[in-house]
Amino acid sequence: MRKEVETSDRHVRELFIGHLIVIDVYSFSSSFVADPVDVLKALDFHSSPDGVRKVTGLCAHRRGSKPDIAFRIGKQAQISAPSMQLFPGVFPEDFSVMFTIKPKAGSQSFLLSVYNEKGVQQLGVEVGRSPVFLYEDQHGKPSPEEYPLFRSINLVDGKWHRVAISVEKKSVTIIVDCKKKLSRPLKRSDGAAINTDGITVFGTRILDEEVFEGDPLVIRCEEGKSLAESWNAAFMESSAKENQVKTPRTHASTIEQGLEAQNTSGC
């Protein structure tokens, strides 16, 4: 059921609890931002705002470089921002969302929520035993009953997972740890659009009781790269050095080989 609230009057109470590691948003569209946008940087996480502190991330011992830095977010943290601040310009019709997380075992919550100026949630990634990709365009499509659901995937088993979600035309694809790749129809309108005049919320939905608990590491937005190339830009640099892996060029093989290299590297 669609939730509609006035975002300007509603103060989000609780968001992430745990470590924030990586959430990346990429674009295939030339109308999106020309330079990568680090969302955590845009939200000033590195200055450790109230309720946020730096901790060791996924890899505590990485050969030839410093350990990963993550962010632990407490209940008192209130993390939201105008969407235009995070996604300047027109939000792309085709895009990707990527993240590395270790949610609390058995939990179910939204990692990312994007609202329009009327408080209607247009985009959301719910992590749980059966992840849900929430998408609602300017015409209200697809309906809530048609949101893509990935029943055979469990992201809340207490383990680390690297996840890529790709939206292209009328299909959404999820790739998890290079081992699972599933596609679902996305019954949106032709010329579907996401409005950036509202707010973006991390770790919950407005009016929801549930908050993200666990270990989520970089949030970036990027234009002009395929899902595979973007994934490698975000996650593959250190592992490629350690494993002497050359970045392939093809879409499917690049993302899967990139994930595999990350998994076999131990970090």
Word description of this protein:
The N and C termini lie far apart (39 Å). The protein has a single domain, classed as Jelly Rolls (Sandwich). A hairpin with a 5-residue loop joins strand 8 and strand 9. It has five helices and 16 strands. With 267 residues, it is of the alpha+beta class. The longest helix has 15 residues. It is globular, with a radius of gyration of 17 Å. Strands 1, 2, 3, 4, 5, 7, 11, 12, 13, 15 and 16 form an eleven-stranded mixed beta sheet that branches. The chain has a five-stranded antiparallel beta sheet with strand order 6-14-8-9-10. Helix 4 crosses helix 5.
Topology:
Elements: E1 17-20, E2 22-27, E3 37-38, H1 39-42, E4 52-56, E5 69-73, E6 80-82, H2 83-86, E7 95-103, E8 109-115, E9 121-127, E10 132-135, E11 161-168, E12 171-176, E13 180-185, E14 199-202, E15 213-215, E16 220-222, H3 227-235, H4 237-243, H5 251-265
Parallel strand pairs: 1-15, 2-16
Antiparallel strand pairs: 1-5, 2-7, 3-16, 4-5, 6-14, 7-11, 7-15, 8-9, 8-14, 9-10, 11-12, 12-13
Helix pairs in contact: 3-5, 4-5
